[in-house]
């Protein structure tokens, strides 16, 4: 089980996966918007998306969990 | 007939002593080294030096003790890339590489030699720290361990100081890497900590592993005390040799030009840079198109990756590159990236390595978290380092350069020798979206019809973009040149060669009060 965390504070611009999806390491999973920039957050490990913790438009702080991935 | 030493056994006695010294510590410790993929200190030196042509001082230190060959440290003068260097190398088969009185004295002496010769000083560290039993002899006195660090500080910026960390660097010993220009760490074996996990548990009640608290990966990704993470000792040594190729022997000399190589085959800059200022791209791909293939030496690659810092060659000429990485955290500058940039600039400036800034930066991060962490003083540290550097400074605005981001990346006010813009460059206090919001937010909110509102905002964006149009800035002499992206490498090579003779006198004073 690996928690994918926000690399910086910002708003969730897009969630690119759904629960149950398989992801590979390096795949962009969530797109944040911060400082007017698009910030892709990539999976550090491969596995199945177990839970998406955020909604589009929501604010997340740095280090907040975005997605849980079951390895 | 007169007796000569030829027949009286003097040499035999010497050879016996030498044999015990060269053997190092007890065989069981050599076995242990092998098990953890560590090399014996003398094998490390063989790999480090160009050849067998090296000399050693204090080889017989503590020879009378019997079990402390060389007193646990080899100090030597040899050649790396044809350049004379001084080296101290712990022998962890001898009392875990711990420091006694003679160990410390030997280290101090080789440092003094490096200073007198004005040559690089290398520290091959693998040591458990002080021999507590010898503490009065080796710790507090004028030529105690503190003197090693005092010497390092004195020699900083005078000669290159490189640390290769093969094992632990514990307690006070952990300051050796901290005072070096660069620290190369072997993953799995190297560690740095002031108090061991055992001590942490006893003194503050924390339960933690060595890897978590002071491991090589942690230091190269989180704390930033480590600079280069490598898998093996052989790699650590070859990386140190590669790093030193870019440096002169001391501050008074200049780095040598080497044979030029073409850039790596790849996409053009035009194909790499997205038109949308807010879209991420990989700055490494752009750097590859600017530098001679294989020449980029990445420093702190894994730490604060939103700012890339590394030394490379352009047409054989050495250059220190600072580049924002839009792919990581949008290329926004944080406290850690500011620290990383400041130290890198100081390093290059000390040894006459020109600086190239590749700006694509939305600014410094904002918000409660970073303000509480002192982003302003960290930013000031970065800007102060950049501002006081007197080596040639070339600023290239790749895409956006907003706010204090422009300052940090050697914007026009900080006396770069040239500020070059690519046609995609956008220089402003803030980006169009943020600026229009800041200036017109009341008016925007007052428009009730959503279509009208969008139209109004778009109109204001257009006006703003016209105001900061790069040709307007060039016309006002704010920037010096606009270059087609595919021509940038050639232009940089030209400029680096023209700026070679740059000399800037330092302001008359003792020293600046550097923000930290």
Automatic annotation (TrEMBL), chain A:
<keyword id="KW-0092">Biotin</keyword>
<dbReference type="InterPro" id="IPR011053">
    <property type="entry name" value="Single_hybrid_motif"/>
</dbReference>
<dbReference type="Pfam" id="PF00364">
    <property type="entry name" value="Biotin_lipoyl"/>
</dbReference>
<feature type="domain" description="Lipoyl-binding">
    <location>
        <begin position="1"/>
        <end position="70"/>
    </location>
</feature>
<dbReference type="InterPro" id="IPR000089">
    <property type="entry name" value="Biotin_lipoyl"/>
</dbReference>
<dbReference type="InterPro" id="IPR050709">
    <property type="entry name" value="Biotin_Carboxyl_Carrier/Decarb"/>
</dbReference>
<protein>
    <submittedName>
        <fullName>Acetyl-CoA carboxylase biotin carboxyl carrier protein</fullName>
    </submittedName>
</protein>
From TrEMBL, chain B:
<protein>
    <submittedName>
        <fullName>Acetyl-CoA carboxylase carboxyltransferase component</fullName>
    </submittedName>
</protein>
<feature type="domain" description="CoA carboxyltransferase N-terminal">
    <location>
        <begin position="7"/>
        <end position="259"/>
    </location>
</feature>
<dbReference type="GO" id="GO:0016740">
    <property type="term" value="F:transferase activity"/>
</dbReference>
<dbReference type="GO" id="GO:1905202">
    <property type="term" value="C:methylcrotonoyl-CoA carboxylase complex"/>
</dbReference>
<keyword id="KW-0808">Transferase</keyword>
<dbReference type="InterPro" id="IPR011763">
    <property type="entry name" value="COA_CT_C"/>
</dbReference>
<feature type="domain" description="CoA carboxyltransferase C-terminal">
    <location>
        <begin position="264"/>
        <end position="506"/>
    </location>
</feature>
<dbReference type="GO" id="GO:0006552">
    <property type="term" value="P:L-leucine catabolic process"/>
</dbReference>
<dbReference type="Pfam" id="PF01039">
    <property type="entry name" value="Carboxyl_trans"/>
</dbReference>
<dbReference type="GO" id="GO:0004485">
    <property type="term" value="F:methylcrotonoyl-CoA carboxylase activity"/>
</dbReference>
<dbReference type="InterPro" id="IPR034733">
    <property type="entry name" value="AcCoA_carboxyl_beta"/>
</dbReference>
<dbReference type="InterPro" id="IPR045190">
    <property type="entry name" value="MCCB/AccD1-like"/>
</dbReference>
<dbReference type="InterPro" id="IPR011762">
    <property type="entry name" value="COA_CT_N"/>
</dbReference>
<dbReference type="InterPro" id="IPR029045">
    <property type="entry name" value="ClpP/crotonase-like_dom_sf"/>
</dbReference>
